[in-house]
Amino acid sequence: MTNVCTAEGCNRERGYGRRLYCEMHYYRVRRHGDPCVLMDRHKPEVKYRAAHARVRASSGPATLYRCVDCGCQAQHWSYKHTDPAELVSETGQPYSMDPSHYEPRCAACHALFDGTGANQYAR
Fold this sequence. Notes:
By secondary structure, the protein is an alpha+beta fold. The chain is built from three helices and four strands; from the N terminus they run H-H-E-E-E-E-H. It folds into two domains: 1-39, no CATH class; 48-122, no CATH class. The strands form two sheets. It has a two-stranded antiparallel ribbon with strand order 1-4. Strand 2 (87-88) and strand 3 (94-95) form a beta hairpin. Residues 117-123 have low confidence and may be disordered.
C-alpha cells in the first residue's frame, strides 16, 4: 500500500492516519462528498448578507437614523425594491448590490413594508 492520495491524477502524500486522500481531497470529500469538486472562487454575485454589509459600511448602522415611515429610531436597513438590477437570494429574498436602494426602517415598519405587498407599488 502506497502513501499516495487515491484521488485520480493526484500524486500528493496522503493525510494523517488512515485517510485515503491528501488534505485537499480529504476536505473536498468532507464538504461536498466528491474529491474532485472544484470551487468557483470568483463568484460574480454579491450574496444577500454581503449586500447588507455594504449598506452598513457605506451609511453606518441603521440605528443612527430615523425610520422613513414613522420617524421612530430605525433598526434595519430595508431594501426599497427599486433597483432595476434586483437580485434574489437563495431563500427568495430580493436585494440590491447598490446601497442607495436601501432605507432605514424600524422593525415594525420593515415587517409591514415587506409583508403587506406595499413594496410592490414601488416596482
